[in-house]
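re: ur question from earlier - yeah i can do the single chain one, its not a big deal. heres the input i used so u can compare w yours
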Amino acid sequence: MVRAFQINTNLLPTDSPERFRQAVLFAAQLLRAGEVVAVPTETVYGLAANALNAKAVARIFSVKGRPTHNPIIVHVSSVSMAKRCVAHWTLLAGKLARSFWPGPLTLVLRRAREIPPIVTAGGPTVGVRWPSHPFMQALIRECGFPLAAPSANPSNRLSPTNAEHVRSALGTKIPLIVDGGQAQVGIESTVLDLSVSPPRVLRPGMIHKEAILAVTGTLAGYHDEGGELKSPGQLRSHYAPRAKLVIWSWHDEGELRRRSEKSGVRSSAIQVIAYNCIPSGSGFGRVAVIPHDAEAFARSIYAELYRCDQTGAELIIAKQPPETDEWAAIADLLNRASAS
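and the output i got, formated as tokens:
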């Protein structure tokens, strides 16, 4: 159940070796005690708990307001720790780990008995990932156990990519936020289901299909929307800002203006996010320009959506991403964010 009182939240920096070590020790102390803490990863900030402690994991669901049918990814600090989290570590899992770990790839395999059912939403599989962020690696090594860590935000809302995003959303509900700087990938990990043959991408990320194919040799099509959830990021509506988000394509400013005038939203409350065909600032509340580069766009998109909400947008118009593999994760994110 949600705690009825507000917590005095500590926010610890990691911008020197001494502060980094102090934050690791304090976070590990809280995690051993069954608490949840917000931590940086290279993808987005996570809300971490001891993955082997069902009561601690239940706190994650409570703080986030997360539906219990939505599983949580388990984070490890080595391949040997990953092997303890799964019933059978396959040859293909080993090849993928050697190619992409540490990094933003989650592998879904049959879960070990040691992983509580609450982590996997009662399902037979678990997603495991070895993150590349140095703080997350040091923290898991210090704890000696894997960490369950979904994004550190209220369920279905925007994922946080810096400590301030976490503080504004969850700052009175958790005892610690570790400030590890801006997330360098910026969107959630690619999730690959190895419990089926051929493997299937459950959630696209910045490790692209072609890169995975180079290791696996074959892939099934992207997941469908039916059946049990094997990983987060499979809900139709997810990652949503408070303002209404639409994804449009336009060839010039005149076309964009004519279409936006039909929205019924006053122009000053409309904000635009674009990487090309950039409109002038006049006539819109704000225009955000992100480079026409998928990696740069991924690093920036959540921060831009947060900024739109903070500055009072009622309608956010995002430029339709290119239909290429490197933009697939961004297109998926925007589609789910616009589905609410």
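The chain has a mean pLDDT of 93. not sure if urs matches, ping me
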